């Protein structure tokens, strides 16, 4: 994910001159960094809403790409655009006040590992707060990748019952997760 | 829509773009100021004793201060057109100008006797000064504001406010060609008031109109 500024500058310069392929490469190169920042900062949002924010930032980059000065570095420009749009989106989505240091983007673009949406430690802590059977189902399906039918056979439940229990458990976990983010 | 699809779509709909140019914004502001300036000069004219008045150092401040405000605030507004732009030293410099203006007021309040103060403050043209000054500032402000919208300021209210200060400062500098009032108490209060009003209007406009 670590991309040099010169590479990005070359791509964006070509893009602003009308080169669509360079532009696609530029947007593709910056997307993982944007995504990791949005995920780290907007954990209460859910994957779909997070991806919407990422797309909003990409759209803003697109609409304002002419405000980059082609003889200056790309990254400060990119951080500023992304930060503005991310703060804006989070405020609108009501995920509370957002503190978003510019260093977040710097680190993400420099190739720091992207934080997992639900780190293992958090998962264990949250699973401890719901009933044992639901926790077992979540662990089996989402963390160990077991099939719902298999889990049902093991716990003497129908596959449908497992799915319902799983769905309810995920909703409760999400609520707990949001509460902790508070 | 998937993010990959969005990227593909953006990349296929991306014609070459012209970079934003601060010079063009300034040009638009100057051109927009011409009609009002021409009207001012044609109807009211330059004061007959202009050269004599400008021989007094304190009186030159009535042009120098607003011109400095226009340059500093305008320059900062243009820098803020870019997302990563900074106000920089223009902030402290503008504060310094405000202190100079304040010092002028204090000086006049000390040297003038109590009955002289209201006379100096109101002069003979106070309401006219305020209205003409704001009138002169409106055209350039609108043109500059329109230009700033093509940029991407991450501080919309501040950028609009600086544009307002710049338009007000430029208007005051030009109005001083005509204005016969030379007491610093008068020009700091009325010029300064008009410039601040213009800045305030710019701030309100920027908070709404410069978001993206």
Question: Would you mind describing this structure in some detail?
Answer:
The complex is a heterodimer of chains A (182) and B (212). With 182 residues, chain A is an all-alpha fold. Helices cover 71% and strands 0% of the residues of chain A. Chain A has helices spanning 5-16, 20-41, 47-63, 74-93, 103-110, 120-127, 132-143, 148-155, 159-181. In chain A, helix 2 packs across helix 5 and helix 7 crosses helix 9. The longest helix of chain A has 23 residues, at 159-181. The two termini of chain A are 31 Å apart. The model of chain A is unreliable at 112-118 (pLDDT under 50). Chain B has 212 residues and is mostly helical. Helices cover 74% and strands 0% of the residues of chain B. Chain B has 9 helices and no strands. The longest helix of chain B has 26 residues, at 184-209.
Describe the secondary-structure layout.
The complex is a heterodimer of chains A (182) and B (212).
Chain A lengths: L4 H12 L3 H22 L5 H17 L10 H20 L9 H8 L9 H8 L4 H12 L4 H8 L3 H23 L1
Helix pairs in contact in A: 1-2, 2-3, 2-5, 3-4, 7-9, 8-9
Chain B lengths: L2 H10 L9 H22 L6 H4 L3 H23 L10 H22 L4 H7 L3 H23 L7 H20 L8 H26 L3
What descriptive keywords fit this protein?
heterodimer; A: 182 residues; mainly alpha; elongated; B: 212 residues; 9 helices
